[in-house]
Amino acid sequence: MIQTMTAAAEAGPRPQDTIVRQATKPRRDWAKIGLGGYFAVFLFFLYVPMILMAVLSFQGSNGNLTFPFQGPASFGWWKSLWDSSVVGFGQNADLIRATAVQSLKLSLVGGVVTALLGFLLSMAFRRRWRFKTDGIAFYVIMLALMTPGFLVGLGNQLLWKAMNLTPSLWQTALGANVVWGIPFSFMVMLAVWNRYDKHVEEAARDLGADQKTTFREVTLPLVWTGIFGSFLFGFTLTWNDYDRTILLQNGYQTQTLPLQIGGMTFSQAIRPDLYALGAATTAISLLGIGLLLAVVWLRLRFRRAPVQRISEELGDTTGLGRAAGLVGSRDTSN
Amino acid sequence: MSSSSGSEPPLGESARLALDEVEEAEAILAQNPPKAEAALGEAAAAGRGSGWLTAAFAAPGFAWLGFYLLAPLVFIVVVSFWTPDQSLGFVKTWTISNYTGLFHDSTYWGNMLTSFETSLIAVAACLVFGFPVAYFLALKVEKLQNQIALFIIALAPFWTSFLTRAIAWTFPLMGRQGALNQLLLKAHIVSQPVDALGFSTLSVRLAMIQLYILFMVTPLFFTLAQVDRTAIEAARDLGGNWLNTFKEVVLPQTMPGIVIGSIFIFVLTMGEYGTVQVVGGGNITSVGTIVNSKISAIEYPQGAASAVLLVVALMVGVFVITRFSNLREEL
Question: What is the value of ipTM here, to two decimals?
Answer without folding.
Answer: 0.75
